[in-house]
Amino acid sequence: MVPYYLPFFGSGFEFWHDMISFILKWRNYFDSDVFSFYMGGKTFIYIHDPVAATVVSSGRMKHLHWNEAKYRMMKNGLGSTHFAADTWIKKGDLKNEHAIVEKHLLSAEYLDKNLLKYQQYVIDKMFPWLLGDNKSDWKKIGVKELMGKSVFFATCETVFGFRSLMTEKHYDMGMNFEKRFPKFTGLDSKLWQMSDWDGYSNRERMIKDFNSIFENLMKTIDKKVDNPGDDEDYWTDIVKEYGKIAYDNMSLDDIARFNMLFFGASFMNTVPAAVWTFYELLRNPKAYKHCYDEITSIAKARITTEEEKKENDSLFVPFTLDEIESMEVLESTFNEVLRLRSTTKMLRLRMAGETFHLNLKLPYTGKKMAFDMPKGAYVISCPTVMHRDPEIFKDPLEFKYDRFMKGPDGNPPTFYKNGIKLLRPVDAWGGGSTLCPGRRFARTEIKALVAQFMLFYETRWVDGVVPEPPVDTKRIVNAGMPNKEVYVEVRKREIAP
After folding, report:
1. Residues 130, 464: Cα–Cα separation, whole Å
2. What pLDDT was estimated at residue 143?
3. Nearest 10 degrees: CA dihedral of 479, 119, 110, 74?
4. Can you give 306-321 as a three-state secondary structure string?
5. Are 385 and 20 in contact (CB under 8 A)?
6. Distance between CA atoms of 268 and 276, rounded to whole angstroms?
7. Is 58 helix (H, G, I), strand (E, B) or coil?
8. Assuming Cys at both sites, which of 134, 214, 257, 497 could form a disulfide with 78, CB separation 3.0 to 4.6 Å?
9. Are 455 and 291 contacting, i.e. CB atoms less than 8 angstroms apart?
10. How many CB atoms lie within 10 A of CB 230?
C-alpha cells in the first residue's frame, strides 16, 4: 500500500497532481507490476503488466465491471435522474448496444455507405463554408476549428440526423461540454457542478435543444419519413435502434440526456485525433509529402480514361473503405497519434461488485499474484505509461509518423516487452466487452477527412513558423484535446489531382 497522510483523501492529492509520475514513482519503489493505494475513501489497485491490465478490464471477470462508470456518466456527467441511469444499468444489454453500433459503424456494408455520405458532406458543404472557393487568396484558420467543425457537423448529418445542432453555437457548447464531462462525471453533487456555472449552463442549454429534437422525433418513431426537409432533424437507424431502452423506459428529458451521451462519445475522442493527425503531418514536410503522394496516387487511379481526366479536373473522389484502409502513411500517422497524443492521460478502471479472490498472471515478468479484492475497490491501468515505455518504443516521447509502417519485407513492425511480443502495442480503444464499437468508423472518418482536405487544399503555417505541439498537461484525464488553437493558411488547389 502506498503510504499516505490524510485519512480520507489518502494519496489523492499526489495522484491527481501528476498521475503518470505517481504511477511510475510507486511502481519503481515497490518494484512490482501491482500495487495499491487509498484515495477518496476507496482502495485502488494498479495493474502495470499490459496483458494483465487487459484481462481485468476485458469484462471476462464477472466480479469486475464498469457499471458504476456507466451510471456516473449518465447520472453525474449528463445530469439524468437516478431512475434513468439505474434503468440503463439494469435493463441495458451491453452486447446488444455494441452489436447495434458495430452493425452500422464497423461492418463494411454499412460503413462504406456512411463514409461516402461523410466525404460528400465535407467536400460539398463543410470545406466551402469554412474556407470558400477562392483559388488565389490564402485564408487563415485554426486547425482545431477546421478539423473539429468538420467532424462535428459531418457526424451530425451522416450518423445522427441532428441537423438542428449543426451551428457554430452548438459546436462551441459541445467543445465546452467536452472539457467538463470528466469532472462532472466525478462530482455527485449538482451544487458542486453548478459552481462551474459556465460548464453547467452550457450542458443544460445543450440538453434543452436535445429535448426539442426528441419531442419532435418521438412523434414519428413508428413512422417512416422518406424525405425530411433540408434543415429538419430525422431518425437514423442507429439512433432509433441504440436508444430503444431510453424510448421505452425514460422521460423525454432523460431521453435527451441519454442521446447527448451517445452523441458526445462520437466526437469527444474523434475531434482531438483528427486535429493531431493533420497537425503532425503538416509539422513534418517529409510526412506530408509521403502522405500526399499516397493519397493522390489512389485518387488518380480512379480516373481511368482521357475523357474522364478532361471532365474531372476538380473531381470529388469518394474513397472506398478498402482505399482508405490501404492508406499506410495515414494509418501509421494515426496510430502514432493514438499512442502519443490521444492517450496523453488515459485511465481505465473497473470496480469490484463483490468481494472475491483474484488470481492474476503477470506474463511479462512470469510472475503470479493472488489477493482478496474487496467489494467497492477499483482496479486501474494506464495505457499512457505503456505507450511511453522506452523498452517497447524507441524514443517514446518523439512523434514518428512512420513508426507503424510496414518494413521492406512487407510485414508490420513488432514491439516487445521483456522479450515477449505485444499483440496490441497501442491500446486506445478499451478491450473485451467494452472495446469501442465505433473504432473502425472513427479511424476511417479521420483518414477520409484528412485525405480529402489534402487533395483539394494547399496548407502552410502562418508566417512559416511551426507552432509547438499544443499538448494539454493540466487536465487530470483527457483524450488529447489540444489546449490552444494553432493557425494555418489554406487555399484551394488550382487543379485537384
Report:
1. 22
2. 96
3. 30
4. HHHHHHCCCCCCCCCH
5. yes
6. 13
7. coil
8. 257
9. no
10. 6
Residue 286 burial (CB count, 10 A): 10
Alpha-carbon torsion (43, 48, 52, 53), positive or negative? positive
Give the C-alpha distances (Å, rounded to integers) separating 326 from 162, 180, 323.
31, 37, 5
- CA-wise closest residue to 387 among 334, 344, 329: 344
pLDDT of residue 280: 97
Around Cβ 474, how many Cβ atoms within 10 Å?
Answer: 8
Going by C-beta distance under 8 Å and a sequence separation of 6 or more, which residues neighbour residue 42?
A: 376, 377, 378
Q: Cell numbers 505509461 label which residue?
A: 385
Res. 495: pLDDT tops 70: no
Residues 487 and 275: their CA atoms lie apart, in Å, by 12
User: What is the C-alpha separation between 409 and 370, in angstroms, rounded?
Assistant: 43
* Cα angle for residues 325, 326, 327 (degrees, 5° grid): 90
- What is the rounded average pLDDT of the residues 191-197? 90
Condensed to tens digits (0 to 9), the pLDDT of residues 453-462 reads 999 999 999 9
State how far the Cα of 239 lies from the Cα of 242, in Å rounded to an integer. Answer: 5
And the C-alpha cell for 271?
475531434
Q: Residue 301 corresponds to which cell in the numbers above?
A: 487511379
